[in-house]
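Re: weekly structure request thread

Next one in the queue (134 aa):
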Amino acid sequence: MPSVFTSLILDVVDVERSLEFYSGLLQLPVRQIDQCDGHRLVYLKTGQTEILLIQQPPSDQVDQPDRSSGLVINFLVRSLPDLVSQLESRQVPILRGLEQDFYGDRSCLVADPDGYAVLLSEEGQVISPRVDLF
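Done, posted below.
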């Protein structure tokens, strides 16, 4: 049987702050909130995949390296310009501003509260080149 990607586990400093980003701004539904041996856990659903936000107890937290490169988490969203405006108003770090390609697809790269790179994408329509008839 081939391997199946089922979940992404993100080590976060403050689960409430991360929950506001993923559930509040990106509107991912919360499946479960739990605690185990001082760890705070939040399970978020996104399609067939799950995201687990895990906050270690203070005694287990270690300084994390720069998380803005290497791993990029991509979400397909609607109304990307409106979402980008919300992110900017909440001072979410924009790593690469809103861009649109020839096919009308738009994207924006931001950093979540822990510095993980998050690519927000929106499918568009093909942009017709301008044709002057006269």
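The two ends are 61 Å apart (CA to CA). The chain has a mean pLDDT of 87.
Next request, please.
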